[in-house]
Amino acid sequence: MRSPIHEYLTELLQSCEVVQGGAPASYIPELAEADPSQFAIGLSAVDGAVYCAGDAEVEFTIQSISKPFVYGFALEDLGPEKVWDAVDVEPSGDAFNELSLEPETGRPMNPMINAGALATHALLLPGGGVDARVERIRSGLSALAGRELEIDEQVYHSEMETAYRNRALANMLRSAGNVDLEPLQLVRGYTRQCAVRVTTRDLAIMAATLSNGGVQPWTGERVFSARVVRQVLTVMTTCGMYDSAGDWLSTVGIPAKSGVGGGIIGVLPGQAGIATFSPPLDTHGNSVRGVGVFERMTEDMGLHLMSVPPPARSVLRDDGEITTADGGRVGIYALQGAIQFAGAEWIARHLEQFPPESPTVAWDLSRTYSVNKVARRLLLEIARGLEDDGRTVVLIDPDGVIADPVIGDGRRLRVVDSLAGIVGEEALRVPAYYTSPSVDTPTPDVTTVE
Ligand SMILES: NC(=O)CC[C@H](N)C(=O)O
């Protein structure tokens, strides 16, 4: 069977080929030579299944797409305070190479514009030289890509020849006391960072590593902590597309970063990493065809982060009551999916308004994928309430999604691996023991709880 996803990407590529306009970056002579017809799309699921269409194996320089990753390396290596002291997280609405510092604090506005990216680069390996910092970055980007990436010396030298703007920025940072590196050394390091060669396939898996909460899907290496990923994605969302960030968030609605090499990455948290490559750029420095692809994908695939997710009520299913061999009655509730605050709130309200009649209440968690911190707390509170009302709550929790279910006063819920652990094998073999079939959970009233 041909993958419908591969077919979709191929069709998307073809339909966006008609998008014309823009020109390869001309301020870096080597980039001006790029073949404007090259075009690729890559998509990686969070488990590392990658789908590509077009010229996905062609290498080009990562350019500004390095910025969110290097920001992540700085957060990992130095911790949030030091990074925060050096660079703010406010969208600037400025072009990527704007000579600007925040008036009140003197910091660059954010790590996605060049001023902030230079300051972020300078944070790495304090006391180390250019080569050490560049190697930290090259090896970190390689860990994200799952293969050894190399620096394009030609693009590096070409950009250095005309890097007057970035030299001005580095001098500005040095004179304002933001960095203590020699400005030219800083520009050298940053320009090498931008000259790391990647393919569209690489970018898709690098983006998917962010979608996957910081763990590279192929190698299993945790490159970023979940907290760092959250910060990186936040800054990508607000600042990643420079002076078109608001427009991008309205039309596409996913955290993204572009580079003047023609690449764009997009990160759909928990779902997929997306990458495009096409050298002609618009006036903001974003790939024209890349923007077109992302706009269409959002429409087709419902990717926009602000699209309202399905309601939480599907987390609870009332599976009726079962009678044990010795006549005991057990009410069974299946808790399903990923339970977060809204799901746990629904369960609490449901059980309050439709209190289980059975003396024993079994929560079947075998289809529960995850329970986050707040949901865990709420569920244990609900269980305690039920127990205080004279019921016994038992968890059917073969995978331990609610590990160590302590409900206070040293009380702990009983945990079994399967329903048989509660009612005995015998009861399960005789379907007639079920006294009521699986029913839809009725909708509880909306009451204001003060
Ligand atoms: N937007 C970009 O990709 C800019 C990166 C480029 N190396 C520069 O600093 O000018």
TrEMBL record:
GO molecular function terms noted in the UniProt entry: glutaminase activity
Protein name: Glutaminase
Binding-site residues, substrate: S64, N114, E159, N166, Y190, Y242, V260
NADP as UniProt keyword: no
EC number: 3.5.1.2
Quaternary structure (record): Homotetramer.
Catalysis performed (reactions): L-glutamine + H2O = L-glutamate + NH4(+)
Alphabetic keyword roster: Acetylation, Hydrolase
Family annotation (NCBIfam families): Gln_ase, PRK00971.1-4
Annotated GO biological process: glutamate biosynthetic process; L-glutamine catabolic process
Family of the protein in this entry: Belongs to the glutaminase family.
